[in-house]
Design brief:
- The chain is mostly helical.
- It has one domain.
- Helix content is 68%, strand content 0%.
- It contains 6 helices and no strands.
- It is flat, with a radius of gyration of 17 Å.
- The protein starts with 5 loop residues before the first helix and ends in a 15-residue tail after the last helix.
């Protein structure tokens, strides 16, 4: 099972993610329907300045900054999931829920691996970095689906359930 740092847990479960951090990532990604083609470069936009701005190069500060990034991307991912789900037929919504559940299982297993791979002090940093990258990737993937689903110039024909 994945171990979250106490800071990450506090940020996620207390809803303490700063709106500015989410807005910073959103501005980097670009608007829906016209996403920045370099959205991958938005990874680390919260954690890296946080780490260098504080002037504290400790492991604890590194984890604090990565956890802030994960929390911001998690908020974006959840928002994109909800907004995408609202555009889908029920069959598509079921598939999306199943995919998200599978993704969460993958995230937990993949990001727990560094702590099994090595008991070195770097394992916790690897796990946090793993969560950061995977969560950003998932948020961007969901955003990509939503960009496709809501393209105002060329809206797709969504697959509808036969009973709808």
């Amino acid at each position: 099972m994945i171990r979250y740092s106490p800071v990450f847990a506090a940020l996620m479960f207390a809803g303490a993610v700063q709106a500015e951090e989410v807005a910073l990532i959103d501005a980097c990604i670009g608007p829906v329907g016209a996403p920045d083609e370099h959205a991958e470069w938005c990874k680390g936009i919260v954690a890296e300045p946080c780490f260098y701005r504080k002037g504290d190069r400790s492991k604890a500060n590194l984890l604090l900054c990565i956890d802030a990034e994960v929390a911001a991307w998690s908020k974006i991912m959840e928002r994109e999931f909800a907004l995408l789900s609202d555009t889908l037929a029920s069959r598509q919504q079921d598939a999306l829920v199943n995919a998200q559940s599978a993704w969460r299982t993958f995230l937990a297993a993949d990001c727990a691996f560094p702590q099994v791979f090595t008991e070195d002090s770097v394992a916790e940093s690897w796990s946090s970095d793993c969560r950061s990258h995977h969560t950003a990737d998932r948020a961007l993937a969901l955003r990509g689906f939503r960009d496709f689903a809501v393209d105002p110039e060329n809206p797709p024909t969504l697959v509808q359930d036969s009973e709808e």
